[in-house]
Amino acid sequence: MSTNDFPSNAGTVIIGAGIVGSSLAGELAERGRDDILLIDKGPLSDPGGSTGHASNFIFPVEHSKDMTQLTSDSRDIYREFDTFTNSGGIEVARTEERMAELKRRVVSAKSFGEEAELLTPEEVEELVPYVNTDIIKGGFYSKGAGTCDPLRAGELYRQQAKDKDALSTAANTEVTDLHVENGEIQAVETDKGTVQADEVIIAAGLWSPKIADMAGVDIPLSPAVHQMVSVGPIDRFEDGEGEINYPVIRDMDTQMYERQHGNDMEVGSYEHRPILWDVDDVPSIEESPLSPTQPPLTEDAFEDSMQHALEIIPDVLDDPDAGIRHSIDGLLSVTPDGHPLLGPIPEVDGLWSCAAIWIKEAPAIAREVSKWMTKGHPDIDIVAHDHVARFDEYGETEEFVKSRGYEGYQKIYGIVHPREQWQSVRPLRTSAFYHRQQELDAEFFEAGGWERPRWFESNADLVEKYEDEIEGLRRPNEWDSRWWSEIILGEHLHLRDNVGMIGDTGFGIFDIIGSDAEENMERICVAPMDLDVDSSVYTAVLAPNGGFVSDLTVARLGENHYRVITGGAHAGQDKTWFSDHLEGDSELIGRSSELCTLGVWGPDAEELMNSIAEEEMTADSFDFAEMKDVTIGAVDAKAFRISYVGEFGWEIYAPMDQGQRLWDTIYEAGQEYDIRPVGTGVYGETGRMEKSYRLMGAELEIDYTPAEAGLTLHGVKDADFIGKEAYAEGIEEENSATLCTLSVTDHAPDGGERRFMTGGEPVLDQDGNVLIDDEGRRSYVTSAGTGPSVGKHLLMAYLPQEYATEGEELQVEYFGQQYPVEVEVAGNGGVFDPNNDRLFRNEY
Amino acid sequence: MEVLTAIKRVPETGAKIVLTEDKLDIDTSSLGFTFSPHEECAVEEGVQLVEEHGGNVTVLTLGEEDATEQLRSAIAMGADDGILLESDEDRGPAGTAKAIADAASDADFDLLLFGNESADTANHQVGVRVAEQLGLPCVTGIKDLDVTDGTVTARREIPGGSEVYEVDLPAVVTVKEGLNEPRYPSMRAKMQARKASVEHDEPAAYDEGLELLELEVPESDDSPAEVLGESPDAADDAVDVLEDLEVL
Q1: Mean pLDDT within A84-99
Q2: Looking at per-residue confidence, does B223 or A698 come out higher?
Q3: pLDDT digits (tens, 9 = 90+) for A725-749
Q4: For residues A50 and A151, is the Cβ–Cβ distance under 8 A?
Q5: Is residue B222 less than 8 Å (CB to CB) from chain A?
Q6: What is the spatial distance between Cα A312 and Cα A309, in angstroms, rounded to a whole number?
Q7: Which of A7, A287, A508, A775 is the most buried (most CB within 10 A)?
Q8: B12–A296 C-beta distance less than 8 A
Q9: What gap in Å lies between CA A391 and CA A615, rounded to an integer?
Q10: Does an H or E element contain A693, and which?
Q11: Is the pLDDT of residue B74 over 80?
């Protein structure tokens, strides 16, 4: 396209022609978008972003099912384009701790369906003869790893879209502004002209925040340096047959990799101190000797990396004739939680983000985002953890992004515990109870930016009190007990025997108000929404294909007024979904920061609350799921009779500014009942697991239907709703899998240390084969947690139908060892109090 | 033989040069630093001569502390010693040459190698001035060099041929890119160079009598580039353009 041809209109504008933008162009064209304009300020095919200098290797094993799938799918796409070389890859361990982590990675590979095995140092040497086996304990071999060519793949994607006559490209064209009117994207202004657009996707890599800012919105990422050098010529590589002849080596303990290509060895490092850039300091293409994202190597930061590279492959690198021929501080993007930033940007209709994506997962992410754009949802769950809207009402300031980016950088090759907590910029969001909880020595975890107590050190006496019950559930292994405390078990047992108060449960809360509120709620939610005022219902929210978008509670506060209560970490995603699907007269108003929530549950909850509330607060005066106005001491609040721990009691919602008063009133009156503050260790784990309550993003996800999750309790209502057809079919059809609750029957089958799984482990049959259902879905542990009242360590997993029978004996694999487990509950229903006598206040 | 090579720390710029607000310097906030290809050849030549004849290569620069980065790069290429003539004065070619000649006069160098001109100011003067002050013979613009029995044979290209000089050592030679192929330092050499000690000397103050008033970036050709296409389909358009230009 010459400058004169710059179009004045386009259906879809993609900003950024790296691998992400180019893949998007191809995938959107594949799904019927036929008027796409792809803009980049740089030339094609290498416009100067991170795609042009990435190391391009694909290591297909992750501790996350979604990321493993996206990487595997991307590899397939690169392969289809003939831009993938399957060299294999080996992660080597220098320490015992890392060797244990490699075992864990083999287990994750098994869970999520990627080939992997552990190697002895000798076996590593057989595959890569130049590795110094004297300093390694062993390796993790991923046969399916390899190297791709994203620039070529991008070209082919663009060509594909052009062949369909769906794409025009505008290279060397700089975006100077985004036009937004009434919350809708209108046009993209560039130095070559202005193009009106129906939808705009920001796929501009580390420049994305700058482009987003033009529309007055945030894409929270920061450019960060990844140092790389290339050393050559290396004699032993001279006679190699192809460009790549040896597996990639990842020297995990030093956070480095070594990759042979041609007669060079590329040495890359994440070991150096994190070096974060301001996007405004990234030079222009003209100002850059190499490219804007390849500033010169910061040599002092690379010193240790050189030492470590010489240690691990001395035969190749410690050669005076092999010189450092190329060296850069390669710039890439880091985000506050290490996840990509995808999806519709909540504040501006028609504006999408597709940023902070690694080469190894880019084409598949682009494919899923293109599905999201064209049919309303992706087929791989990139919503729960990767939606740009997860930073709702927080997390977009420069200090937050930089601090978390700095912290997260060190986790890229790190050993990250599944419960590991972020340390920087805390506390950020504190509820009205925060100071009281601090006084009681709360150990805070963070969710959705909120500080939430996981347990209270002040409850340490409960461990002694319940010594007999806890004895068999202690976790002697350091990994199993990291970010965990026995106090959680004590708090749990105390709550089941007496009464506990849990606050703040960190909910996302928003109201839907307007004369079309009921109609909208009916269309969005699975459960019937013709509720009586003051009543509530737990409901699934589905995508058109019947997969889960969310599970949440809806209360009707007035004729035209609904309140939606959802998980704090999922609030932004849900708000965006509701807001995007509202029609007619309905408005969405966020309440998360103005309301605090205090749960009071346990056998003494009724007597306690009835003694301090102005109104009657008893099982007789409150139906289950009823939400009513109450006055507790001096505080007007709403009490909601519901529970996520399976006990009688209420969630009490009060204005945030009166939360401390509410806490004090209940805590003081509760002393008579030995009320204890209880953390989310009980709320989110032990209490929930004993009741087999499902968690969004763990059990509830796009791969499984409500029928398989056991959440079709409402049947199929008459009113139309999103996903109805698939939902109804799911009920009719025989399930391929059923969500089950299992218990571990032997924690030390080899007679060694008793181990307690943390989640993500594969479920195996008696012969050690991973269970796979008719649809090819592999069984793995979706959640794990101890049930102190039942004296068992509990796991949830989807099992193929033929195994979903109570009493079925199976196995799970954890750190390379197999453990016997038994199906406790197949489908819905708790291991503890299966008839819900406690919840419904029946005699028990 | 004892060889001295002199190098100059300069910013590694892209196509477009950005000046600082006061227009007295180049904005180097996102740039790295290097020394010029001519000087890389000088260092490489010195290292090769010493590999052949024995002796030492000393690399010297004039500038602030951060110029030791370039000395270390030269040491990583094989130079034995580094000397920083530490000065924060803005010196022109006369002051620079004076400082280098003063430093060189203390030692017995057989051969002093300079880049033909610096990468930033390109005054073509320092080597010649050093030779003049030290009373040494000097040849410039050299692309081929050989040392035998106390004599340096140096060749420079001229239009239509070349000139060859024989000069007795000690001598000053200024060289040009193409003299040799400078080596890339190995990782081990790079690491050792980072730990090598660098001698710091202070040159005597010098009043050049020159003041930099302002830098100016020359007008660039902003005529728009036109992308003719991305595939072989663009060949016809490319041929048309070449025909328009009458090169076909």
Answers
A1: 97
A2: A698
A3: 999 998 898 999 999 999 999 999 9
A4: no
A5: no
A6: 5
A7: A508
A8: yes
A9: 38
A10: none
A11: yes
DSSP assignment of A366-397: HHHHHHHHHHSS-SS--STTTBGGGS-SSS-S
CB pairs below 8 Å between A and B: how many? 90
Mean predicted confidence (pLDDT) in B97-107: 94
* A719 touching chain B per CB within 8 A: no
Query: What is the tens place of the pLDDT at every residue in B188-239?
Result: 999 999 999 999 999 999 988 888 899 998 887 666 677 787 788 888 888 9
Locate A600 and state its tokens. 């009071």
Per-residue pLDDT at B219: 80
CA A133 to the chain's CA centroid: 36
CA distances from A663 to A436, A444, A497 (A): 8, 17, 21
The pTM for the full model equals 0.94
Confidence band for A3, pLDDT divided at 50, 70 and 90: very low
| CA quadruple A35, A36, A39, A44: dihedral, nearest 10 | -110
> Would the CB atoms of A287 and B69 count as touching at under 8 Å?
no
Q: Which residue has the tokens 């993938």?
A: A84
Query: Which domains are assigned to chain B?
Result: 2-201 (3.40.50.620)
Percent of chain A with pLDDT strictly greater than 70: 99
Does A15 have pLDDT greater than 50? Answer: yes
Q: 3-class DSSP state for residue B148? A: strand
Q: Could you give the count of Cα atoms lying within 13 Å of A190 in the half-sphere of its Cβ?
A: 28
- Measured between alpha carbons, how far is residue A535 from residues A11, A243, A602, A626 in Å? 44, 67, 22, 5
**Where do the domains of chain A lie, and which CATH numbers do they carry?**
3-50+151-220+337-389 (3.50.50.60), 432-506+593-696 (3.30.1360.120), 508-590 (3.30.70.1400), 734-839 (2.40.30.110)
Q: Which residue type sits at A737?
A: A
With H, G, I as helix, E, B as strand and everything else as coil, classify residue B40.
Answer: helix
DSSP letter string over A595-613?
EEEEEEESTTHHHHHHHHB
**A500 vs A652: CA distance, rounded Å:** 13
Tell whether A128 is within 8 A of chain B (Cβ): no
Residue from A158, A162, A279, A287 to probe the interface with B (highest B Cβ count within 10 Å): A287
